[in-house]
Amino acid sequence: RTTELDSICLKAEVIPVITIERIEDAVPLARALVEGGLPVLEITLRTDCALEAIRRMREALPGASIGVGTVLTPAQYRQAEQIGADFVVTPGATEALYRYGVESSVPMLPGISTISELMTGWQYGYRRFKFFPAESSGGAKAIKSFGGPIPEARFCPTGGITVDNAEDYLKLPNVMCVGGSWLTPQALVEAEDWDGIRELARQAAERFHH
Ligand code: 3PG
């Protein structure tokens, strides 16, 4: 699973975190991001149309890696498996999620924000984590400090990351990629400005690359 997550994260340094409010936005929005050069997407389960949005994106963009985010329970994890998610992202982690993820064929990126939470995930065999909410949990300094006791763990920080602070994280050896909603500003989505979103993705892909 670590290998699977690494190969997904190697495709892009920046993962747009997307919340779909209107189902008809799903495919054009995802297409704009992928065409702009960001082929790994996380769609949050925060809206009623999220699962249908992911289904449509997968069908329209078979080359993209599509993760399901904001997974809080094993039941939601199962839904993500059923719609063929490439990976699952959780904001935090529970014992139930850890246990479910160990058995699942879909890899999970569990959310942690403290060294104790990291140790719990580590004990379950997880090696790749989401660090959330990154900016309010100590930011890049915290991730750098995690590298002392557990240097092999790798992180995808999200929460408060923007084009201006992404590099502070990406330059750390234990950060594999960053995620955030800054690539899908509400104003552009509401205006259906897919060219504008493609351009934001293009700039991010150009500025941050492996
Ligand atoms: C997430 O779930 O990762 C966050 O909502 C993304 O955080 P951001 O909106 O601060 O980028």
What's this, in brief?
Its EC number is 4.1.2.14. The protein is an alpha/beta fold.
CATH superfamily: Aldolase class I
Number of domains: 1
Number of DSSP-assigned strands: 9
Ligand list = 3-phosphoglyceric acid
Strand order of the largest sheet: 5-4-3-2-1-9
Level of helix content? 40-55%
Mean pLDDT across the residues is: 96
Spatial shape: globular
Point out poorly predicted stretches: none
**Main CATH class:** Alpha Beta
How would a crystallographer describe the biggest sheet? 6 strands, parallel
Strand content: 15-25%
Distance between the termini: 21 Å
Secondary-structure element pattern, one letter each: HEHEHEHEHEEHEHEHEHH
Q: What class would the helix/strand composition place it in?
A: alpha/beta
> If helices are DSSP runs of H or I spanning 4 or more residues, what is the number of helices?
10
**CA-based gyration radius:** 16 Å
CATH architect. name: Alpha-Beta Barrel
General description of the model:
The protein has 210 residues and is of the alpha/beta class. It has a single domain, classed as TIM Barrel (Alpha-Beta Barrel). 42% of the residues lie in helices and 16% in strands. Strand 3, helix 4 and strand 4 form a beta-alpha-beta unit. Helix 2 packs parallel to helix 10. The two termini are 21 Å apart. The model has no long low-confidence stretch (mean pLDDT 96). The protein binds 3-phosphoglyceric acid. It holds the Pfam family Aldolase. Belongs to the KHG/KDPG aldolase family. Homotrimer.
